[in-house]
Amino acid sequence: MKHYFYALFIIVLLLNSCKKEDNPYIIKKQNIGLLTDSTQVKDLKTVFALDSVLTDKPNKFNKDNTIEILDTQGKQLLILTPTKGKDSTSTIQTVQITDSRFKTEKGITTLSTFKDINTNYKISSIDNLLNSVVISVNEINASFTIDKKELPANARFDMTLHIDASMIPDAAKIKYFMIHW
């Protein structure tokens, strides 16, 4: 009987030691570290309690407020846009990734290039905007913005031009990286 107890104790210890910790910087389709698509604004202080500071910042595009997440040294990590401004029960609609420590499961960060995106993910669409192109990847609910300065001259100024993946240089750098829920 004594041996069974020790064997059970060792098995429990082994299972506990194999438990995988959540990576606070991994980006998946429905979560970024401990932040999920169902996290409410009121819960953000708990989610980022150990290493981050929250500040409200008026969004220059609309009347809602964005929430800026900073690490303890004051470096910006994320910019969150809630579905409803000034509502503590609102969930997060958009997350702008600003720190290169955050990466997708396939290794894409803010320092990645178009080639990295194109190699690792199926591009869902490419939108031609005034000063940039937006590359959407539905697999992870992400959009990557690339400045048109990175494109060949013939693709920079014509907003009616259909931008194809072959028109974007492999070395084109990501300007913005956003996750949409």
SSE arrangement:
Elements: H1 2-17, E1 26-27, E2 31-32, E3 35-36, H2 44-47, E4 52-58, E5 65-71, E6 76-82, E7 92-97, E8 103-104, H3 114-120, E9 125-128, E10 132-137, E11 142-147, E12 176-180
Parallel strand pairs: 1-8
Antiparallel strand pairs: 2-3, 4-5, 5-6, 6-7, 7-12, 9-10, 10-11, 11-12
SSE succession: HEEEHEEEEEHEEEE
Shape, per Cα inertia axes:
globular
Low-confidence stretches: none
For the report, how would you describe the main beta sheet?
8 strands, antiparallel
Q: What is the helix fraction of residues, given as a range?
A: 10-25%
Q: What is the SS-derived class?
A: alpha+beta
Tell me about this structure.
It is a single chain. The protein has three helices and twelve strands, in the order αβββαβββββαββββ. The model has no long low-confidence stretch (mean pLDDT 86). The protein is of the alpha+beta class and 181 residues long. It has helices at 2-17, 44-47, 114-120, and strands at 26-27, 31-32, 35-36, 52-58, 65-71, 76-82, 92-97, 103-104, 125-128, 132-137, 142-147, 176-180. The strands form three sheets. The protein has an eight-stranded antiparallel beta sheet with strand order 4-5-6-7-12-11-10-9, with no helix packed on it.
